[in-house]
Amino acid sequence: GESVGLHLPTLSVQEGDNSIINCAYSNSASDYFIWYKQESGKGPQFIIDIRSNMDKRQGQRVTVLLNKTVKHLSLQIAATQPGDSAVYFCAENAGGTSYGKLTFGQGTILTVHP
Amino acid sequence: DTGVSQDPRHKITKRGQNVTFRCDPISEHNRLYWYRQTLGQGPEFLTYFQNEAQLEKSRLLSDRFSAERPKGSFSTLEIQRTEQGDSAMYLCANGGGGDYGYTFGSGTRLTVV
Questions:
Q1: pLDDT band at A58 (very low <50, low <70, confident <90, very high)
Q2: At CB < 8 Å, which residues of chain B contact A?
């Protein structure tokens, strides 16, 4: 079936560095993508989203890039802080009849060292 | 405060017992979703409601699972005759009709022993 996956399961960075987390998706019908952050014992927390008619969207310290040609999504975190340490998931939605139903990737563990 | 409250936070049950989880969205959105998450994996869609109507169910939702949203606000998820493979985090999320980036609760962690 269609799936969303991640290239790197773990990422370690120093505080203050920029972080890039990557995600590959396989469903060409996906038209909406979300990045979530999940801390231990908590539910996924919305970070940023992007629709398929865009290739870049910026938030506070975060940027999401979408490359539909190669079905690739990335999350950039600027000036990474220890509080950014968590598991990051990308998720896709194919719209249509699956409106609102998200397919999640496996997740990347981000560790930020002081 | 995520805006979605789930109860209980943790549940340990013996195999074969029935369990019920509750989800209370603080603000009433017309869509409510249940997901299941196992260790090291992303959440997997189980089912969703638009108001009181259950509109879609995943193949993961066997006959032992039932979900309700009787008044279009809170929702319950019941698992009958629990199995060890049911051990997981059960997440609830809600969002409005045009709000894809919907809000998750903190989940109920179920352990079947």
A1: very high
A2: 2, 4, 31, 33, 40-45, 48, 56, 91, 93, 95, 100-107
d(CA A72, CA A66): 6
What is the phi/psi pair of residue A21, to 5°? -115, 130
Omega before B8 within 30 of 0, i.e. cis: yes
Q: For residue B35, give the nearest of B56, B14, B16 by alpha carbon.
A: B56
A53 class by beta-carbon count within 10 Å (0-12 exposed, 13-18 middle, 19+ buried): exposed
Task: Tell me the chain A residues in contact with residue B29 when contact means C-beta distances shorter than 8 Å.
Answer: none
At A1-33, the pLDDT tens digits run: 344 544 458 999 999 999 999 999 988 888 889
Rounded distance between C-alpha atoms, residue A85 and residue A79, angstroms: 12
A60: Cβ contacts below 8 Å, ≥ 6 apart: none
